[in-house]
Structure formats: structure tokens, C-alpha cells
Amino acid sequence: MLSKEEFINYTKEGKILARKCTRCGHLHLVTTYFCQNCGNKGFENTVIDGKGTIVTYTIITVPPEGFEKYVPYAWVVMKVDNSELSISGFMGGIKSPADLPLGTKAKIVDHDERGIVIEKQ
Amino acid sequence: MEKVCVIGAGSTKYGKLADSITDIALQASVDAIESAGIEPKEIQAGYISNVFGIADKQVHLGPVIMSDLGIPEVPSLSIESACGSGSISFREAFANVAAGFYDVVLATGVEKVTHTGTEWTTTYFSYCSDFFYEGGAGASFPGLFASMARAYLAEYKATEEDLAMVAVKNHDNGMLNPKAHLRKKITVDDVLKSAVVASPLKLYDCCPFSDGASSVILCSEKFAKAHSKNYIQVIGSGRGGSPAALQGRQHITEIPSTKIASQAAYKMAGITPKDIDFAEVHDCFTIAELVDSEDLGFFEKGKAVQGVREGRTRLNGDIPINPSGGLKSKGHPIGATGIGQVAEVFDQLTGKAGERTVKDAQIGLTHNFGATGASCAVHIFKSV
Ligand SMILES: CC(C)(COP(=O)(O)OP(=O)(O)OC[C@H]1O[C@@H](n2cnc3c(N)ncnc32)[C@H](O)[C@@H]1OP(=O)(O)O)[C@@H](O)C(=O)NCCC(=O)NCCS
Fold it and tell me: How far out from the chain centre does Cα A120 lie?
């Protein structure tokens, strides 16, 4: 059985545990059971460096429960270098758009009560 | 397939309501039954859409509503598909009548959340996202759409003023709708000066949290012809899906499920976007209306902004969008919204929309999705 646990352990090392389809090579984040591209059930685990560029984000001022103490913070979408994958997560310390131009280089650094934690490189 | 018609519609006012979730669901249902001119005993099934019944201590709403309508023996289905619950429930109702299982059915949507406060609602709504990557990493719903907005503004050289114009237009329409939640005329400046909720979206870019209920009666064409002179026909119905998380989408400025659902609905109706006289679309945030009106085929990608600047989507424009005021001004009681859109099309096409009537309209479209468009339903209606 697949679980998020293993995936989370890799994010703590700054890595992404991806699943590569053994038939068409399409990459997925770890909990996919069937290939979204070709429907195949065979995968091999691939560990990717959790680095990339920020493609979009928001700065949250009205947060959900548990995030009050971090306001303002960003929630970002990062395109992973050398792959078709994007991954999203929490980025602290962002107060205004001037702090984070689109295209900024970033990396996964952790996973904790804030979910996947991403920082600027 | 049987032809399916809508013969009655009812809605409560949308806003902060004092009555309970079952009270408001029943008020809308009784309105719809009376508007259809039928007896409850003629209803053969109920489709009841709702997301957070838990907030008012009532889930499994179907049997409660059927019992209080005096028809406890009639089967019901209680449906949750986030903000798209209403239209997705309508689709199930449509499909069952079209398949010939039932002649007459009730579809009621309801939501009652405003008493829970901003934090509860922001938090619980975030459970509708792909929580591990989104809500669980601090993304609120305004935040997810704000991320779409930032990408859209950058890609198509649009501005926050352009987004604001969508809100201004929908508030203008909402002023003409006695049942709207936010009946207040606003200016572009008001929007730009309102408090930031999730940058670049501000308070007036967002729909409000609303309570409310809407209900419609669907039936076979045979039943409609025998019982009513004032009804509309469902000529197209389509559904679609998208990757649950924004990160899984090839283009963050498009919603795949809208394209899939609308193409299926246009095909069933045998028409193109040009044939649509007006549309009620899912404008949970100003950015969503721009993205929707492109994905539905009213504008090319990136051109909806131009359409808004030229006033083409206003009530007197060539493709009026959200004559009701939309989610932005009419309000967004999430389980009811998709049914409320059908109620608006019913009112528009049967001469009951008063001052906000779209002139000479014969074909109306509804578009409603769940979460960031992970699930979606589109319906097309024609006056008879
Ligand atoms: C923007 C938001 C955070 C405001 O929070 P809220 O709890 O509704 O705000 P309040 O009830 O405290 O309202 C404060 C004031 O702002 C007004 N207001 C609230 N939301 C508004 C909105 N979206 N647009 C304009 N005015 C609004 C209220 O009428 C109230 O005015 P008043 O003091 O004159 O009565 C909240 O409405 C929101 O998150 N909206 C998005 C809902 C959503 O995500 N839906 C799902 C979409 S997929």
C-alpha cells in the first residue's frame, strides 16, 4: 500500500518521492495507483531534487485554523526543475509581492504542521 | 432519452438567515412546488445538495425534507460535491428523468454556515481542496483563486482594475435582484481599496459566505405539457473533472472540467457558445468569471478581460454574464448555488426576472463547479 508517510520523510530531506510509469515514463506524486497518462499500474520510485521556480502564489491575510500565527505568509506553486511536475506548499516570511517575484528559485525544506514547507533558494 | 423540463423554481433570500437549515430548505422547496402548480404527492424522488449540514447539526437532509413535505415514503439522495453540489445534484435529477426512471422530481440545495464565523468557514471550506497540498499548507479558497489570478494577470497583461470591473458589474446586477445577499453599488475604487484577503484578491473580489436555499421541479416533457404553460426545457447537460490540486494542471489559468462539461452540453444541445443568450457562471471570485467565460467558449483565452472592459458581459451587452448578480453579489450558499442558477434561468426565460430581465433571451446556460473546478456541471436551457 502507498502512504503519504514515505513521501513526507523525503520532503524533510528536501526531496520529492515520485512515481514513474514503467510503460510511458509519466511522473506522478507518490500516491497515484494508476498512470494518469496511460492507465498502467506499474511504477518505479524516483527521487527528485525538490528544487524549482515559483510559477504562482498568494499571500494569505485571512488564514484557516492553525495558520494565524504565520500571517502574512505565502502559499506557492513551484515547477520542479527538469520535470513536468509542480508541487505546492507553504512559504513563510512573505509580506508583499515585492518579496517574491514570479520565477524566483525555491526549494522544499521540510514538512510539518504547515504542510510542505518551501523556501527561497 | 426522455426530454426533461423544469416547471417550477423557488429560492429563499441569500444572506445571513436566522432560520434553521431544514426551515430554509423547506421554504425554497414549497416555493418551487407551488410555482410548478403540482402536489407534493406527485414527486417521485428528491435530490438534496448540501455541504456543511454538520454546521447546523443536520446531515442526511433528504429524508428530513421529504418527511416535512408530507412524502416520507419518497426516496431521496443527499449529495455533496463542494461548491458544485447544486448543479451536480441537478444533473443526477436530470439523468434519472431522462432515463425514464421518474416523471417528476424535486432538486433542492441548501447551505447554512454564517453563524459559524469567518475562521470556521475558512477552515472547513479548505477541506474541499486537495488538503494535503493545499488547505493543509495554509491555502484558503480565496488563496487558491488568488494564485490563479496572479498567474492570469501575468500571462495576459491584465490588471487588478480588470478584476474589479467584474465585481462592479455583478454588484450592479445584484442591485436588481431582491434576493441577493450583497445589494450594494460599488465602484472600481471601492474594490481596489477593500482589504486584502489573499493577494491579489481583495474583499470585494470575493463572494461572501451565505446562507440560502433554492429548489426546482424537473419533469418529463409529457408531464410538463399536461400540467404547465410556463416551463423551460433542458437541452444540454455535461459534466467533467480536473486534477484535484492546482499543481496537477497543465495550465493554471484554465479549468479543464469546465471545458469538458461545456463541450458535452453544447454537443447534446447541438449548438455553439454563440447561440447562448446569457449565462450564470461560477464567479466565486472575480478571476473565476474571466476564466469561466473563456473556458465556456464566450471569449478566446486571455480575451475575457477585453470583453469586460467593453461592457459585453453587462445586462445589455451581447453576452450578459450573471444577470442575477452571480455568486459575488447574489451570494454563494455553496450547496444551493447550482440550483439557484437554474432558478435564475427559469425566472429569466419565463418572464419572472423583473428589472434584470435579459432582453429577448431564449437560451440560457448554467455553469457551477466544486472547489477550484475539480468537479463541474454545465446545463443549457431553452424557453418553450
Ligand atoms: C472575504 C471573507 C473572508 C469575508 O469574511 P466574512 O466572515 O464573510 O466577513 P464578515 O461577515 O465579518 O463581514 C464584514 C463586512 O464585509 C462585508 N462582506 C463580507 N464578505 C463580503 C464580500 N465577499 N464582498 C463584499 N462585502 C463583503 C459584510 O457584509 C460585512 O459588512 P457590514 O459590516 O457592513 O455588515 C469571506 O467572505 C470569504 O472567505 N469569502 C469567500 C468564500 C469562499 O471561499 N467560498 C467558496 C468559493 S469556491
Answer: 13
